[in-house]
Amino acid sequence: MWKGFRRTYAVAVRSASTSVTLADVARLAGVSSATASRALSDHPHVAAATRARVLRVADELAYVVSPDASRLAAGSTGRVAVVVPHLSRWFFGAVLEGLEAALREAGIDLLLYRVGDATQRRAFFDRLPVRRKVDAIVVVGLAVEGWERERLELMGVDIVAAGGQVAGHPFVRIDDHGAGRQAVDHLIHLGHRRIGMIAAVDPDRCGRGPEARSAAYRDALADAGVEVDEELVAAVDPGGAGGARGMARLLGLREPPTAVFAHSDEAALGAVRTLRRAGLRVPDDASVVGIDDHPLADLADLTTVGRPAREQGVAAGAMVRAVLRGEEAGPGITLPTQLVLRGSTAPPRGRRRRPRSD
Amino acid sequence: MWKGFRRTYAVAVRSASTSVTLADVARLAGVSSATASRALSDHPHVAAATRARVLRVADELAYVVSPDASRLAAGSTGRVAVVVPHLSRWFFGAVLEGLEAALREAGIDLLLYRVGDATQRRAFFDRLPVRRKVDAIVVVGLAVEGWERERLELMGVDIVAAGGQVAGHPFVRIDDHGAGRQAVDHLIHLGHRRIGMIAAVDPDRCGRGPEARSAAYRDALADAGVEVDEELVAAVDPGGAGGARGMARLLGLREPPTAVFAHSDEAALGAVRTLRRAGLRVPDDASVVGIDDHPLADLADLTTVGRPAREQGVAAGAMVRAVLRGEEAGPGITLPTQLVLRGSTAPPRGRRRRPRSD
DNA sequence: ATGAAAGCGCTAACAC
DNA sequence: GTGTTAGCGCTTTCAT
Prior knowledge:
2 copies of one chain form a homodimer. By secondary structure, chain A is an alpha/beta fold.
């Protein structure tokens, strides 16, 4: 019972066996493995009949190429690495979801790397565990500069940034400044003048995002002729707890704000909790607006500026496919954000047309 | 300029180059590639001095093995596939985070596969895109049975289930029945008798979870001598919107419940929103308890039953490492859940000691 | 303890 | 069009 036979036999028994090789397919189709390879990978110069036969045999045997062997011989891996700071936060999960969908469609596999804290981050760029494993790297929600960027580029593969930036590489992002303006302008239009900001401060993380949002806050106020009172800016950790603490600080002011712009929905939700606990009502006593349009923002009736998450992932996936095809992906694209009006914002007390009945 | 030299030269230039091969290391260390291989993979029968030398050279050249070539020659991939239904929901993200951490520590890479809807799910089990790519598969939050299970097993690799089940394979889970009891018993202890349930119905998804929680509801009521009123059970889509709708249905009853047990925090939050919109106060007019201990549950002051998420991922990761080492992982482990008391539950109106001041 | 050599499964020149 | 032949970079007997 020679080897080939044993294999074929085994195949017949457990039909989707993992160990069918190209050679098996070739032999049963009566062609050389080279031809089989060509037929399977849609090469030109294969007779239609031959191709059909090979395909049929391959199908019967439930043959799948060994990506490893293929890689070894051909060079490309069919894999892309995704580097994310978080997995349990909605935004990153949603980006990942879009990215996965876009890459899956192209038959590309996703290798996941999380770089949560500074230690992991350092370890990642130091050891570069993705070396020799992927065709491209997608960096999500991370600003990569200097040494880190050099290390990344050392791997010699394509790089795409989603919701962050890596100088010199194609990116997908939102206009953080614009998003901030949409939020603050909304409060201003409602008549608010004493507007606080709960700013996320996450060192070495999302890079330009928070800064742009903060700048937007100042610009919006300036355009409205309102002088910025630095007391009204609370810099806190991102996340709900930070938002709650930031709001507490603002409430401690001699003259608290009548409205608050939070850098994220989570922070905004934290702010709302603090307000409630202080016996204040939203939006009657204070308005709150966030950024993200987190799914739970809807449940919390939070006014916010929606930023596309899944879409950023999909766009990044498309970009990856483009660069892998050897196309230039251009500098990058910026996706639009949109104000989502809900029940957490209203005109300030004095300027309200009529008391809310709720 | 022979090939080897060119390579070595290139290496010297860009020191972490991706194209240093074992042969390069071997040559510079003055040994055969066989010995270099042994030294690098900690084999016995290598002289200490030789090993040290090889390691030093490898380090200088920033050599990393080619996982593909290694796989081809040795058989194992150093990769594990993770199959999840969602990425943007907190629970799944958290499990993934734990899993990633546990596997990363062991130098194992994560290949991500999302099977969101029935179509994707069907496609996944039909095409088995992970074939020949991984050493093991971790199925998260999915009940895999019958045909799907057969397909999965066809791949001939280890299988581990986290927050779901695949008959005959090691699992990590929580006691859903117990969690449900903790939630409902809490309401009963507070004095509630007319208790509603907002049950998640997600066909072909998490399998036994919802059923177990529903059973716990009935058992808890039975033990308390309360007859179950089927009107009080609202079966809805999982998620906040479903919860909101479920609560609306319960409020339409002639005699609405004084407390509600929701299968998830998201559904519970939806229920809270409906109550608020109806002008009812939580917990004054109605108590609400969920399951999960979602990060935002804290911000919403929601009483809930915490179920470990990250921990399930870590445990599943440990299990994978064990089975890959060839150890028996046992039938599986069940992680404890815990009641987290917050402000969304209180005794029913009539039985309250004193009116709440808030 | 180390080296030589035979593949692992596939692709890509290069012949025919 | 199709077959032949080299490898891709590594691990692993089998010698020594």
